[in-house]
Design brief:
It is a single chain. This protein has 440 residues and is mainly alpha-helical. It contains 19 helices and 8 strands. The strands form 4 sheets. Strands 1-2 form a two-stranded antiparallel sheet. Strands 3-4 form a two-stranded antiparallel sheet. Strand 3 and strand 4 form a beta hairpin. Helix 3 packs across helix 9 and helix 4 packs across helix 6. The longest helix is centred in the last third of the chain and has 31 residues. It is elongated and about 100 Å long. The chain starts with a helix and ends in a 17-residue tail after the last helix.
């Protein structure tokens, strides 16, 4: 009986033996991956704070639009319920954001934002728009200015009353940021199998909080923004933009360049007398020394206004030769150089005009001969001769009248005309010229 039962009972498993791949035991690493993971929870606190500030504006917009035109409701009376709805709406939208972005990917009509802040701002705007009542939808374009004022006033009221504290807003903002920041631009998404690995990662994480190293700056930001902050930090020491040897804080650079910088461009001290050069402030002494001759000419033009340029240049050479060594170059401005020139000119005497060159004398002689030739060649008429005679007669009468007046004045002061003739010359009447002509 025992034998019969044993032969009739089939084997428990008739399947073929499993392959080696199926019976391969799990490794220790695979077991660890299924266990608890350690997450790096660092994030960009500045961005989270910025999103939290947007929450308050969005809530105020939703409350104002929801109660516009209402008699028994005010924005404050619905703020609590609207806030609850707003948080639920934003969290739900952020959780489905990845799926929505996949669905609409490649759609040329819908252009979804890629920055996390822009994405969350769109969520807030969509919620505020959904809370508009019929009256606000119809009259929104009419009361737009009034609407903005009411929103700003309600934001200030909530901040003063501590209705939605910034800490709680930032907690919600961080949740949304982690859901929509798929590129890990504002938070760290790394995971580690042990706490030791996490501790080793934290000192090098790009989202760790650091302080600005520039003296006087108290800014706090994530390590990944060091270069961005450094490029705009007002306390960073920079070399002077005008290439002077000083290092200046960025915030003081403009004031330094236009006030005390040794390379600041200034007008020459002799600008009032005609030098139009602009030179760096530290090179003024070199400019005065190198351009002493031109500065002397500028001042001599004012002292001797009727002198020719050649005479002034000659005088300048004489002044530079006669002046004690360095006396003229030591003059710092036009006033000092003018006094130095006048002291030297007392010793040198009056300015002498430069004589004409041989070419100039020849030119003058040729001009005189040409004029004489033109007079000789021009025909003379009887009318010209008569007019000339009348002119000479008139000049003779005028001269005689002047002589008579002079003798009268001498008699009045008790001086005889004979005695006056000894000390002065009495004008004589001009001789009458004989003009020969064809008609005489």
């Amino acid at each position: 009986m025992m034998q019969e039962s044993s032969t009739m009972s089939p084997p428990a498993n008739m399947d073929p033996p499993a392959s080696d791949a199926e019976v391969k035991p799990e490794t220790l690493e695979e077991v660890k991956e299924e266990g608890p993971m350690f997450h790096c929870n660092l994030f960009d606190a500045e961005m989270v704070h910025k999103i939290g500030q947007e929450f308050l504006t969005g809530l105020a917009s939703a409350c104002v639009d929801n109660t516009t035109g209402g008699i028994f409701k005010s924005p404050a009376s619905v703020a609590l319920d609207v806030r609850r709805e707003m948080v639920d709406y934003l969290v739900q939208r952020s959780e489905t954001f990845v799926a929505e972005s996949v669905v609409f990917e490649g759609d040329p009509i819908i252009e979804a934002p890629t920055d996390a802040f822009d994405i969350i701002s769109d969520f807030i705007d969509d919620f505020a728009h959904s809370k508009r009542n019929f009256f606000s939808r119809v009259s929104g374009w009419i009361l737009s200015d009034r609407r903005e004022d009411r929103i700003d006033d309600f934001v200030q009221e909530m901040e003063l009353n501590g209705f939605w504290l910034i800490g709680r807003r930032e907690s919600v903002a961080l949740t949304l940021l982690r859901n929509v920041d798929v590129k890990n631009t504002y938070h760290c998404s790394m995971k580690f199998r042990s706490e030791e690995e996490l501790e080793h990662h934290l000192p090098s994480c790009s989202f760790r909080v650091v302080n600005c190293e520039n003296e006087g700056c108290n800014a706090i930001f994530v390590a990944g923004h060091v270069d961005q902050h450094d490029s705009a930090c007002p306390f960073k020491m920079l070399p002077c933009e005008q290439k002077c040897p000083d290092s200046i804080m960025r915030r003081d650079m403009d004031r330094h360049c236009i006030t005390v910088c040794s390379m600041k461009l200034v007008n020459c001290p002799f600008y009032p007398v005609g030098c139009l050069s602009t030179v760096p402030q530290c090179y003024i002494a070199d400019h005065r020394s190198e351009n002493l001759q031109s500065h002397l000419v500028c001042i001599l033009k004012l002292v001797h206004k009727e002198a020719s340029l050649e005479a002034l240049k000659k005088r300048t050479e004489v002044l530079m030769e006669e002046a004690p060594r360095g006396k003229l170059a030591a003059a710092r401005d036009a006033r000092a150089l003018t006094f130095a020139i006048k002291d030297l000119e007392v010793k040198l005497g009056p300015l002498e005009e430069v004589k004409q060159s041989v070419g100039e004398e020849t030119s003058t002689t040729n001009n005189a001969e040409s004029c004489a030739s033109m007079l000789a060649d021009s025909p003379t008429t009887h009318d010209d001769i008569a007019a000339s005679d009348e002119s000479f007669a008139k000049d003779e009468n005028d001269t005689e009248k002047q002589a008579g007046s002079l003798y009268t004045e001498l008699n009045n002061i008790g001086m005889s005309p004979n005695r006056a003739e000894e000390g002065m010359e009495i004008p004589k009447s001009p001789k009458k010229h004989n003009v020969s002509g064809s008609g005489q």
